[in-house]
């Protein structure tokens, strides 16, 4: 029994020096905070695309003669803004932190495991009240479970996060199931129908020209989502003008990573 206890001690020491769940979630949130502006920028570009492709569809005369054009356009505008606001709130909240957490600590090459084989550092963790150092960040040159390893591979981590973001945002544009699709296309149709009914023109809902008008708006919305997912989303953090927002914060993040034991 005593011999088993002795054998377990190195394992316990190793485990206690790794980044535990509280540390992992804190580091994930620190990184998530840096990608909130990236998501905002991408969604703003989608908003501009929708402005161009949806607002300016010609309204049939038989509809504009009954329902003020401004009422229809305001309803569409509010639906787009509300849908994008709701999506942005979800995409930049707990969902983002959880996605980054999974990217770092699950799947291929997770930042877990023993950081002492081979040994790179002279201590398993800092003394109470101390942080890891930049020198330890440089020395910890293989993937394992301590903050210096996360610090050392920050560029790799940023690449992983960008790949995750691109995949996540593209998934949200999928016809029928994507959160962005659900927030925009069905609600836009409902907004137009509600406005028409409010003005006592419900009989127009089955008119071929009105149905074609509504379908054009939905079609252009879907097209805008598709183009956005294959251009803006795939170019996230790849354009020269994105360098500051995607890479200009290392010196703010590294101390936050290294302060965890």
Automatic annotation (TrEMBL):
Record bears the keyword Signal: yes
Signal sequence segment: 1-18
Keyword annotations from UniProtKB, A to Z: Signal
Protein known as: Uncharacterized protein
Species name: Circinella minor
Native organism taxonomy: Eukaryota, Fungi, Fungi incertae sedis, Mucoromycota, Mucoromycotina
């Amino acid at each position: 029994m005593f011999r088993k206890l002795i054998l377990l001690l190195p394992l316990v020491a190793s485990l206690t020096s790794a980044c535990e769940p509280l540390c992992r979630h804190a580091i994930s949130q620190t990184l998530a905070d840096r990608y909130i502006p990236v998501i905002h920028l991408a969604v703003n570009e989608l908003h501009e695309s929708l402005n161009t492709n949806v607002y300016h569809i010609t309204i049939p005369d038989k509809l504009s003669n009954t329902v003020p054009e401004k009422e229809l356009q305001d309803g569409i505008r509010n639906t787009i803004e509300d849908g994008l606001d709701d999506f942005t709130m979800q995409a930049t909240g707990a969902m983002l932190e959880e996605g980054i957490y999974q990217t770092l600590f699950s799947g291929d090459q997770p930042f877990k495991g023993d950081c002492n084989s081979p040994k790179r550092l002279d201590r398993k963790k800092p003394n109470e009240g101390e942080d890891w150092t930049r020198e330890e960040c440089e020395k910890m040159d293989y993937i394992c479970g301590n903050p210096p390893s996360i610090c050392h591979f920050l560029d790799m981590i940023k690449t992983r996060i960008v790949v995750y973001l691109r995949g996540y945002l593209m998934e949200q544009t999928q016809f029928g199931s994507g959160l962005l699709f659900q927030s925009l296309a069905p609600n836009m149709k409902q907004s137009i129908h509600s406005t028409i009914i409010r003005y006592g023109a419900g009989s127009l809902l089955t008119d071929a020209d009105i149905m074609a008008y509504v379908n054009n708006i939905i079609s252009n919305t879907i097209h805008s989502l598709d183009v956005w997912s294959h251009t803006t989303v795939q170019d996230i953090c790849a354009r020269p003008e994105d360098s500051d927002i995607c890479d200009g914060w290392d010196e703010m993040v590294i101390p936050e990573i290294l302060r965890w034991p």
